[in-house]
Amino acid sequence: MTAATIIITVLGVTASLALYRVIFGPTSWDRLIAVNLISSKVIMIMVAAAVFFERRIYLDVALVYAIIGFVSIIAISKFLEGEGTNKK
Amino acid sequence: MIAYLFIFLGLVFIFFGTLGIIRFPDIYTRLQTSSKCDAAGAVALLVGLILKQGLDSFSLRILIILVFLVLTNPVASHAIARSAAIRGIKPWRKKKNVKGG
To answer: Do B11 and A7 touch (CB under 8 A)?
Structure first.
């Protein structure tokens, strides 16, 4: 049981627990919060794998994933904010 | 040794942040624990990984990812809370007990 196994297992299990809120969340914002959390945990898993397995390319993948996750969260929250305003 | 201490601290923050996501009653309270999980947990974990790696170009890239996460996570949390507030989600309140309290 090495340190890399423990870290990646804990991060993956907590990401799976946050998936509960994605499935059963009452509103759309709850699902958005949980998706944001899972995205940040996947970034941490990538960085931990890059350090412990000596793979340098995983850090670039993690940075691009962070940028895409940030832009998508901003876009989806703006979309939910303006939903249905043309009915007034 | 200090590196593993930071990593353990980050894992503890991440575990309790996820517990708050599951257990808390409202959007805003869940957003608060999620923000703590992102800020404290991710910063502690990545600082621990930098200390374990040592100082070279590899850890400089981890530092770039760390600075990006610190800059963008509060912005994303604020955008979610602002859109929920504009759409008229009321904050959760404790229900009044009939027998005084």
So the answer is: yes
Q: Which residues of A touch B45 (CB under 8 A)?
A: 7, 44, 47-48
First to last CA, chain B: 49
- Give how many domains chain B has, as a whole number: 1
Full-model pTM: 0.87
Dist. CA A51–CA A26, nearest whole Å: 38
Q: What ipTM describes this predicted complex?
A: 0.85
Q: Which bin fits B54, alpha (ψ -120 to 50), beta or left (φ > 0)? A: left
Alpha-carbon gap, residue B93 to A19, rounded angstroms: 26
State which residues form the domain around B26.
2-86
The answer to whether B84 touches B29, Cβ cutoff 8 Å, is no
